[in-house]
């Protein structure tokens, strides 16, 4: 093997053995809270690793000056793919904390963040049942505030509430008890009514289908 080839191989080996570091703070190993580097996106090799604390701080800083704040909590800026798994859950939860702290009177933003947090949870994880309930309770409280104040009611808000009602209904449907199914039906009906007011026919039909599925589950029959 020539000297040039040997140098090339050595360089490749050195690159392969390079320890990953956080792409934000450039530090290797765990962060100050002893939390390890993580990567739940499409980055490969040693790229894309990040401390969750750094990712949250980055998302918060970027979101203060950008209307599309959800992007920074949802998407890896390196590979442009949405985060998955535990990272997606942690950032969705961090987004709710951030929005409630920085934009607490922006009810559309709060509802959208809470809805994303709800979808990031595993409905089958009983240990997180109280967290699901807490998110749903907060969403319902916001909806009640908007319902009582006509000055807050507009198409954008109606869209956010319709999506929130849908997500709460889906959550209750997945829980599957008779009480939960009856609650799911109420949320699906409210969502359908809002979609009708917005002229969104596809969403109306989706809610009609969801309502039939709830009815079938309650009666023990197959949905039409």
Outline the structure in words:
It contains nine helices and two strands. By secondary structure, the chain is an all-alpha fold. Mean pLDDT is 88; it is low at 1-15. It has a two-stranded antiparallel sheet. Helix 4 (85-102) runs antiparallel to helix 5 (107-120).
In short:
By secondary structure, the chain is mainly alpha-helical. It has helices at residues 3-17, 52-63, 69-74, 85-102, 107-120, 129-148, 155-175, 178-198, 201-219, and strands spanning 37-38, 50-51. The chain starts with a helix and ends in a 5-residue tail after the last helix.
Helix and strand arrangement:
Layout: H1 3-17, E1 37-38, E2 50-51, H2 52-63, H3 69-74, H4 85-102, H5 107-120, H6 129-148, H7 155-175, H8 178-198, H9 201-219
Antiparallel strand pairs: 1-2
Characteristic key phrases:
224 residues; mainly alpha; 9 helices; disordered N terminus
